[in-house]
Amino acid sequence: MRIEKFVHSCLRLTLEGKRLLFDPGKFSFVDGRVDPRDLSDVDFILFTHGHPDHLDCQALRTIVGDDAPRIFGGTKVAAMLRSQGFSADEVGEESLDLGPFTVGALPVRHEPILAAEIPTVLAFLVNDRFLNPGDSFDERLHQFSGIEALALPVMAPFLTEIGAYEFAKAMRPSQVIPVHDGYARDWFLTQRYDTYQPYFEEAGMTFHRLLHPGDGVDL
Fold first, then answer.
1. Which of 2, 37, 42 is nearest to 22 (CA)?
2. Do 14 and 219 contact (CB within 8 A), yes or no?
3. pLDDT in tens, 89-108
């Protein structure tokens, strides 16, 4: 399984010729480094939640095009997408059979933020090998401790570097895919990775420095 990062929390998984896309949001496309047309060959699109840095309807229209990949989100996300003319399936706590991808969905709490409403997040477990927790460090995720690969938010208004590191140590992944860092300039992102990497490696976790759009790893 190939995992590629397209800025911030937008991840594309490829397996057996099928492609699954997570969270194509505004931060992935705002500076033109990623063209949504380059993501238009996906078969499935999954949204952890509806915050604009995870969901950009304008980019989504380009990605969907005429090919109509299957789109999945929680109750409010699916309803919003349908109101915008998209075909979207509502997902709760369940398992999805998406070709070569077996995806378990688990509703968890979003980390605290300054907002009138805190959304529920869908965490997604793919083929029992890769966990995308969205913007959540919920204790319910600890059941997946020891997962092979974890998409880990490493920058956000809701976290500190200590918080990210402590969550990773609780989850004990073999490999860390850093996400939620799309608003950092390249020089600062490099500095952040320089800070994180030795601590993660000392704890026995491989920290993948996915600095450029399309950088990826193979599981």
1. 42
2. no
3. 999 999 999 999 999 999 99
Q: Examine residue 219 and state whether it is found in any structural domain, yes or no.
A: no
Contact 3, 22 (CB under 8 A): no
Structure tokens at 25: 């949001």
pTM for the whole structure: 0.97
d(CA 211, CA 1): 20
d(CA 177, CA 103) in angstroms, rounded, equals: 18
Residue 215 inside a domain? The answer is: no
31-55 average pLDDT score = 97
How many structural domains does the chain have? Answer: 1
Q: What is the CATH number of the domain that holds 188?
A: 3.60.15.10
Is 164 part of a structural domain of the chain?
Answer: yes
State the Rg of the chain over Cα. 16
- Could you tell me if residue 218 is inside a domain? no
Q: What domain range includes position 204?
A: 2-209
**What percentage of the chain has pLDDT greater than the value 90?**
98
**Of 129, 128, 104, which Cα lies nearest the Cα of 46?**
104
Question: And the tokens for 72?
Answer: 């999945």
CA dihedral (124, 15, 52, 175) positive or negative: positive
Residues 113, 134 contacting (CB under 8 angstroms): no
pLDDT value of position 46: 98
Closest CA to 86 of 101, 68, 113, 104: 68
